[in-house]
Amino acid sequence: MDIEAILDALLGGNIVILLLAGFIILCIYLGIRIVPQSQKFVVERFGRLRSVLGPGINFIIPFLDRVAHKISILERQLPNATQDAITKDNVLVQIDTSVFYRILEPEKTVYRIRDVDAAIATTVAGIVRANIGKMDLDEVQSNRTQLITQIKESVEDAVDNWGIEVTRAEILDVNLDQATRDAMLQQLNAERARRAQVTEAEGQRRSVELAADAELYAAEKEAEARKVLADAEAYATRAVAEAIAENGLEAAQYQIALKQVEAVGKAAGGQGTQTILLPADMADAFGKAFQMLKGRG
Description:
4-stranded antiparallel beta sheet; single chain; 9 strands; 3-stranded antiparallel beta sheet; 21% strand; alpha+beta; 8 helices; elongated
């Protein structure tokens, strides 16, 4: 009887020890939480927010605290959305948008909004319509970067209470209805035709200007040539005048007689039978020239 009692006591003590060891292991397991780098854990105690666990090893009180939400903090992209909008000049357009965001404060995202993706998509649609309504179609097409910046800032202000950061907003495409496209195509063709006419007119004007410049250049060169010739004649006249002033009238007569002799020599030197008519005073001119030559010698 004593041996059996001792065995029963030992067996009962081992079970208690095993149960205690198991309880301790369970507490350790429930009290340690390893959070991945890309997540944050929201911890509740009796249904109320207790803490937010960051990446790494964290400790909680077993059976009192529990991880209620595991939130990814990676950047997310909303599905591409298309919404209709009317511009300031009453043109119906379809805007394709895409929004990127990430959760910074999970406790706000968990307890203040139920479906964050749907809420952001609805907010973006309203903001896009509001901003498009302030702009003409040409501004929407040409100032897309400015429009994206305005949309991003407006979305950031709207979702600030949800613990979300909007990292990027994109307008993927601006689509028009067929009637508007046809009207814009006609306008584009008319603008191209106008530019072609303007280019042709500018070409003709340039051609006329070049022709006028050429005529002006030719006239200037001709005037310069005449001026040079007039200067040469004036110089010759001054030379003759200076010779007359220095040598008297005889020098001038000598030059005239010499020119007459040269002219007769050229006429007589021609080929064939020629008849040369000499002025009556040519003999006197020859004589005077010979006398002058003799006198100079």
